[in-house]
Design brief:
Structural class: alpha/beta
Order of helices and strands: EEEHEHHEHHEHEE
Strand order of the largest sheet: 3-2-1-4
Helix content: 25-40%
Length: about 180
């Protein structure tokens, strides 16, 4: 399998953009490259890498998102691999609107598996496509900024970039749900 890789600079550090030639199959931070390679090796046993600038225009769309055009990544086709359940979780994450957050329990309920919130969390931790599959939009039951493979500072930056009010280690609620700014 030949995978195309681009390395782009961003406010969040260097990003690694990986395409299978048609769809985005990985997006991660350079300091998380080992994790990304481990996940990709689980999916593809024989990988050959080709450096390519802006494969399928994905890097341009990601840079536009980071520059403020938060809708620019909505139509990027993604191929995260994974089990049927993982694919359902990752698809559900893409339905969370920009500027909103959900809890693990809310995503589990959306999938009609209300007791699967821990499985949602474990799947979230294995998300191979940061930002585009917006795992940063998941928070703890009390609004706490819980784990993020890229680090909580990046999660906080992404949420604030999307207009979410973040104070200390949590997002603000309006009493009726998660506050959307």
């Amino acid at each position: 399998m030949e995978l195309l890789i681009d390395r782009i600079d961003s406010a969040l550090g260097k990003l690694l953009v990986v395409s299978d030639g048609q769809r985005l199959c990985a997006l991660d931070y350079a300091d998380c490259e080992t994790r990304m390679l481990t996940l990709l090796k689980r999916r593809y046993t024989d990988v050959q890498w080709q450096e390519m600038v802006d494969p399928q225009g994905f890097s341009t769309a990601i840079c536009a998102y980071l520059a403020g055009d938060v809708a620019s990544i909505d139509d990027i086709p993604a191929n995260p691999g994974g089990t049927d359940f993982q694919q359902q979780v990752w698809s559900a994450l893409r339905t969370i609107p920009v500027g909103a957050v959900r809890t693990y329990s809310e995503v589990a309920a959306q999938l009609k598996r209300p007791t699967a919130y821990r499985a949602v969390g474990m799947t979230n931790a294995l998300n191979p496509i940061a930002i585009v599959i917006p795992c940063h939009r998941l928070v703890g039951m009390n609004g706490a900024l819980t784990g993020y493979a890229g680090g909580l500072e990046r999660k906080r930056w992404l949420l604030q970039h999307e207009g979410v009010q973040v104070t200390n280690e949590a997002v603000q609620t309006d009493g009726a749900g998660w506050k959307v700014v």
